[in-house]
């Protein structure tokens, strides 16, 4: 019992010291939804997805949990955190019961003591996020299956699948594990096939009953039959994974398969919108999030070249265009046949422009000497241009003076048919300008598309890297790619998680003959690690299944150090 008091004291001290604020963006969604729930207004509007979603589109379980607490204690983050301290203690107790029932009392005591001081379990108790609740729901489901295997009653079967499905409504990543838990029920050897079939029917009924209300709600609101969240950021992650695989292959192609790239500037209430064309066909729209980035004096424009390889364009045009369908030959325009300013390593050959600088930076430029009233810019590529050469050309716009060191913006086309907007300071690219991108030709990447086009590359260059990160004791991500874990966290991770990781396979080896019990504990571990690795992994995604890893690790430790000593 002492370890539970230790666990409670540590967690209570930790959460009381935390600031009255949240640390992860999704908490804002949950918090707002909870406030609307207690007002009887449903889950309310979407918070950060106004452009795509008008209504709350995440999972329902944590907002309901918050709403219940807000109703009793008011909107108090401290009250939420203290409640999660109790959830954490219950989580440790269930892990203790599972270990004692299926392994040994010694292993159970070691597991409980370790979990009491395990930094990551302390961390999630104070997190205003779904992780602690999801962890408890998942461990409760496994405890239900442990009891069902022992007592074989419908009550524990209903308990197990109800908590498992609630866990899926908290974090949908566990949904693919449901068929494997059904298989676990089917493999129960001390029952007749008829009874096993009845158990499966009951289990499926529980799953449907729990998932159906939220699935119907999402279908009515969003037109998507989603049992978890309707706004799937995973699509963007798959796009990034697909691009990471596709881009090197495109860059290595011998020729760029298109003839021209052009831009049309549109202004909407001070916001700039750039419609990008490829061979005259709409490709992508860049919607600037910055208002009035060009002023009335920003009338100079030109081209920027990145060196390292010789580059050439046949013609560059800047002018006025009043119709998307007006041919370039009919545009009131200026081209580089007039007076221009250019770098030493840029040559003008009639309307053509050639860059032959060898330094690999954006120091090679050409721009008009006089201002140009232009909302349209057009580049005509030579037939022999390569993808790498295309990527080394940018349209330089919004300049306030005709100088190679001017400030402004550049838009450049990538050969994988995407464009970016950058600010330029003193004639050099400074930083990326935030834009919303509307792809007009490219379909979003899907798992089926990735496995169809690049199955080996996806597994070796994306999945394996994320899977390795999921299990790494070196913490690279907490919530986003930009956050860098501090040194203290790295030390805690190596001291506490590395031994668990090393002894985890040892425990599997010693439990291998009781494969049904082993299978049950490994289902959530395998499904979570594989499921997240398909998309994106962070340390907080691993924490909910670490309890099962800890159980097997300490069972391995007991068999190596304690049973051997007793034998001697």
Describe the structure.
By secondary structure, this protein is an alpha+beta fold. Among the domains are: 255-439, Jelly Rolls (Sandwich); 454-568, no CATH class. The chain is built from 17 helices and 17 strands. The chain has helices at residues 2-17, 26-38, 61-73, 77-102, 105-117, 119-125, 131-151, 154-170, 178-186, 193-222, 234-251, 387-391, 447-453, 455-471, 487-510, 515-535, 539-567, and strands spanning 260-268, 271-278, 281-291, 300-305, 311-313, 315-320, 332-335, 340-342, 346-349, 352-355, 364-368, 376-380, 393-399, 408-414, 418-425, 428-432, 435-439. The strands form 3 sheets. It has a 7-stranded antiparallel beta sheet with strand order 7-6-12-1-2-3-17, with no helix packed on it. Strands 8-11-4-13-14-15-16 form a 7-stranded antiparallel beta sheet. Strands 5-10-9 form a 3-stranded antiparallel beta sheet, with no helix packed on it. Strand 13 and strand 14 form a beta hairpin. Helix 1 (2-17) runs parallel beside helix 5 (105-117) and helix 16 (515-535) runs antiparallel to helix 17 (539-567). The longest helix has 30 residues, at 193-222. The radius of gyration is 30 Å and the shape is elongated.
Rounded mean pLDDT is 88
Rg is 30 Å
> What does the overall shape look like?
elongated
Strand content: 15-25%
Order of adjacent strands in the largest pleated sheet = 7-6-12-1-2-3-17
Structural class, by secondary structure, is: alpha+beta
CATH architecture of the domain at 255-439: Sandwich
Query: Which oligomeric form is depicted?
Result: single chain
- Low-pLDDT stretches: 325-333
Helix content: 40-55%
Per the CATH scheme, the topology name of the domain at 255-439 is: Jelly Rolls
> CA-to-CA gap between the ends?
31 Å
What is the CATH class designation of the domain at 255-439?
Answer: Mainly Beta
């Amino acid at each position: 019992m002492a370890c539970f008091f230790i666990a409670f004291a540590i967690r209570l001290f930790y959460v009381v010291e935390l600031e009255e604020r949240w640390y992860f963006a999704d908490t804002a969604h949950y918090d707002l939804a909870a406030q609307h729930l207690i007002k009887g207004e449903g889950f309310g509007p979407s918070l950060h997805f106004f452009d795509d979603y008008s209504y709350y589109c995440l999972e329902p379980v944590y907002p309901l949990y918050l709403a219940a607490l807000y109703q009793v204690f008011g909107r108090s983050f401290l009250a939420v955190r203290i409640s999660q301290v109790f959830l954490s203690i219950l989580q440790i107790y269930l892990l203790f019961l599972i270990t004692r029932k299926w392994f040994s009392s010694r292993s159970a005591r070691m597991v409980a003591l370790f979990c009491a001081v395990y930094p990551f379990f302390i961390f999630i108790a104070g997190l205003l996020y779904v992780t602690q609740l999801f962890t408890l729901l998942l461990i409760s489901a496994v405890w239900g299956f442990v009891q069902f295997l022992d007592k074989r009653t419908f009550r524990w079967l209903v308990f197990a699948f109800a908590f498992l499905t609630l866990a899926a409504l908290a974090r949908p990543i566990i949904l693919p594990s449901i068929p494997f838990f059904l298989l676990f029920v089917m493999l129960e050897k001390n029952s007749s096939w008829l009874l096993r079939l009845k158990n499966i029917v009951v289990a499926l009924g529980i799953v449907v009953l729990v998932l159906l209300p939220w699935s119907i709600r999402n279908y009515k609101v969003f037109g998507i039959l989603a049992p978890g969240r309707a706004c799937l950021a995973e699509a963007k992650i798959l796009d990034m994974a697909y691009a990471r695989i596709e881009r090197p292959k495109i860059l290595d192609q011998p020729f760029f398969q298109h003839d021209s790239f052009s831009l049309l500037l549109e202004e909407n209430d001070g916001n700039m919108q750039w419609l990008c064309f490829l061979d005259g066909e709409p490709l992508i729209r860049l919607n600037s999030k910055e208002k009035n980035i060009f002023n009335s004096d920003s009338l100079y424009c030109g081209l920027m070249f990145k060196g390292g390889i010789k580059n050439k364009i046949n013609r560059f045009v800047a002018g006025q265009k009043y119709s998307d369908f007006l041919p370039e030959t009919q545009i009131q325009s200026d081209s580089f046949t007039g007076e221009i300013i250019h770098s030493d390593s840029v040559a003008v050959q009639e309307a053509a422009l050639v860059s032959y600088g060898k330094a690999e930076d954006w120091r090679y430029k050409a721009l008009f000497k006089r201002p140009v009233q232009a909302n349209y810019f057009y580049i005509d590529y030579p037939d022999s241009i390569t993808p790498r050469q295309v990527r080394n050309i940018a349209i330089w716009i919004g300049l306030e003076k005709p100088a190679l060191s001017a400030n402004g913006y550049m838009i450049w086309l990538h050969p994988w048919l995407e464009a970016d907007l950058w600010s330029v300071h003193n004639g050099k690219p400074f930083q990326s300008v935030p834009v919303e991108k509307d792809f007009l030709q490219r379909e979003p990447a899907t798992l089926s598309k990735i496995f169809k086009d690049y199955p080996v590359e996806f597994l070796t260059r994306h999945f394996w890297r994320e899977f390795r990160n999921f299990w790494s004791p070196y913490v690279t991500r907490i919530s986003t790619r930009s956050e860098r874990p501090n040194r203290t966290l790295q030390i805690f991770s190596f001291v506490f998680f590395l031994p668990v990781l090393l002894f985890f396979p040892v425990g599997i080896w010693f439990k291998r003959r009781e494969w049904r019990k082993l299978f049950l504990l490994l289902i959530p571990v395998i499904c979570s690690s594989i499921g997240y690795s398909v998309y994106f992994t962070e340390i907080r995604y691993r924490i909910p299944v670490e309890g099962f890893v800890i159980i097997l690790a300490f069972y391995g430790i007991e068999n190596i150090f304690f049973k051997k000593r007793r034998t001697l």
